[in-house]
Amino acid sequence: MSSDEDEEAVALVLDVGSYYMSYGVSGEDTPGFTKLATSTLEGTLDGKAPIHKGKLVDKERMDDVIKMAVEDVGIRPEDKYLLMSNPTTMSNEDKAALLDITFEGHSFPGCLTISQASLGLYCSGNSSGICLDIGYHQTTVVPVYEGYPLIGCPSILTSPISGVQIDELMKKLNPTLKGLSDDDMTSIKKGLCQVSETAMSSHIEPKEFELPDKSKISVGDEARFATELLFSPHHFGVKSPGCQELIYNSLHKVDPDGHKELISSVLPMGGTTRVPGFSKRLELELLGVLNHEFKVLNQSESDKEHMKWIGGSIVAELSTFQEMWVFRSEYEEEGPERMVKKKLLF
After folding, report:
1. How many C-beta neighbours within 10 Å does residue 172 have?
2. Strands, DSSP E only, in the chain?
3. What percent of the chain has pLDDT over 70?
4. Are 120 and 134 in contact (CB under 8 A)?
5. Chain CA centroid to CA 270, Å
6. Cα–Cα distance measured from residue 313 to residue 31, given in angstroms and rounded to the nearest whole number
7. What is the C-alpha separation between 221 and 207, in angstroms, rounded?
8. Tens digit of pLDDT for each residue in 124-156?
9. Rounded to 10 degrees, what is the CA torsion of 47, 48, 51, 53?
């Protein structure tokens, strides 16, 4: 870095998903703020998530999210860099748009966007592995080698299996859940859902769940049956491989020489992977399809909740990443498209 590029970057770190977004200053263990992705500058929840299924779908909303993060964290943009996570499947065109939003609408001196899969692995202390990211609207499997997702290779796979599909299945199995908000369903999944070790497990006694209005609702076997969608989607008429098959299929689209290193760090990410029993079931299912030794990484609950943001917080402070920042002077001289091809390789 020049005079403003010599020192370690201290950045505003922003992780935006289809359901939640988190932001705060790099170097911290947890983000200062976590909000619904529909949160607005005015404090309402009627906005639109700017990123949906790996695509930047609303540039104005993304600009508003950055403004909200700056205001909530209480920083001067000209004194900080901006590090943003991006879905691994995001196009170069959308990455270029993120640079435009950063430099045309704000006074940050530098910006970096990094794949959420890479950030998750950095949070776990690894730079190579396979990430299984079960998001709110889709699941993505990404092989990452030495920090770089294998972008452009057929090994990056997506599936419609997602948190919202589990919500819909639970409502189908228990009609009394119909009409509940997305937030209520997320709370039910966190509090009552579980993943069984096998598809044919014993009956679960119904449990009561208290809604925000203090009314109570009974949830039973659907809390277990619905999560079976993750591993046996064909049982529910969903034409998609289960999580274990997605990992297997992804791995076998990579050079065999890299298999051992990749499966030494299998990283589940996303809120749905926090359901009790998920990691154990994934291990059991992978035993049936993989021929090599593997390890499913099991992070602490606090790290699981903010894995991508924590990875960004770590990366922003690493001197080895300083040459990867896109600086305002470079952006103005060479343009966003060239900067994406030259530096934003994650």
Report:
1. 13
2. 11-16, 20-25, 33-36, 51-52, 55-56, 81-86, 110-115, 129-134, 139-145, 148-149, 157-159, 207-210, 216-219, 266-269, 326-327
3. 94
4. no
5. 6
6. 9
7. 10
8. 999 999 999 999 999 999 999 999 999 878 999
9. 140
**Reported pTM:** 0.91
CB-based contacts of 147, cutoff 8 Å, min separation 6: 118, 121, 122, 127, 128, 346
Joined together, the tokens standing for residue 332 give 């103005």
Whether 78 and 108 have beta carbons less than 8 Å apart is answered as yes
DSSP 296: B
What's the average model confidence in pLDDT over 308-333? 93
Q: CA–CA separation, 168 vs 174, rounded Å?
A: 10
Q: Per the structure block, which two tokens stand in for 57?
A: 């779908």
Residue 194 burial by Cβ neighbours in a 10 Å radius (0-12, 13-18, 19+): middle
Q: DSSP character for 235?
A: G
What H or E segment, with its residue span, contains residue 93? helix 92-105
Query: Which is nearest to 267 in space by CA: 285, 283, 288, 291?
Result: 283
CA distance 98 to 153: 23
Question: Quick one: which of 99, 310, 134, 124 has its CA closest to 229?
Answer: 134
On whether the CB atoms of residues 316 and 101 are closer than 8 A, the answer is: no
**Cα separation of 123 and 120, whole Å?**
5
Tokens of 33: 């703020």
